[in-house]
Structure formats: structure tokens, C-alpha cells
Amino acid sequence: MLKLTDLTIDHLHNPIGLGSSQPRFSWKLLSDQSGTVQTAYRLQVVDGEKIWDTGRVESDDSVLVEYLGPTLLPRTAYRWTVTVWDNHGEETEAS
């Protein structure tokens, strides 16, 4: 089973506010299969409607992945979701 844990934004869990207009996302991958590695990810940021979507990115990056979407507004609640694919063909998602 593939699972994502320890989702953070600029090293913070569920931050109430950020001082950065370009936050950085991180996550950890857990699997019960040995030799599992991430092969791709997709990040999405929403505030009721989709603000930013990376699409599928072929990469093993999972630490401090930089937000490159439109300027985020102050005093606005955003939600982010990451989808990850591994080298065994499995997919998982977390928000």
C-alpha cells in the first residue's frame, strides 16, 4: 500500500498564515513494498476553484517543491493536494 505522510508547507504542518508568496511543499512517501520510489507528482492548489495545477511532473522531488502559480492573496484559505505515482505503478493522493 502506498501512502503520503508529513505534508508541510515551508516546513509547517497546517499553517494559518505564510510570509511567502511562493510557498514550498513537501511530503513523505510510505510503502509496504521494498524498493519503492516516487516517479511523478501532481500538485493542485484551490480556494474553492482551482488556482494552480502542475499536471503530472515526472520527478522524484518531494522536498520544498516551489509554488509557481498566480500570486496568493492574504487572508485567503487555500487547500492543496498532492498526487504521487511510484515505480510499481501505484498512485496515492493526500491533502
Tell me briefly what this model is.
By secondary structure, the protein is mainly β. It contains no helices and seven strands.
Walk me through what this model shows.
By secondary structure, the chain is mainly β. It is built from no helices and seven strands. It has strands at 2-9, 24-31, 38-46, 50-53, 65-66, 79-86, 91-94. The strands form two sheets. It has a four-stranded antiparallel β-sheet, with no helix packed on it. A hairpin with a 3-residue loop joins β3 and β4. The protein is elongated. The model has no long low-confidence stretch (mean pLDDT 94).
Name some characteristics of this structure.
95 residues, four-stranded antiparallel beta sheet, three-stranded antiparallel beta sheet, 7 strands
Q: Which value, in Å, is the CA radius of gyration?
A: 13 Å
Strand content: over 45%
Fraction of helical residues: under 10%
Q: Give me the number of helical elements.
A: 0
SSE inventory with pairings:
Elements: E1 2-9, E2 24-31, E3 38-46, E4 50-53, E5 65-66, E6 79-86, E7 91-94
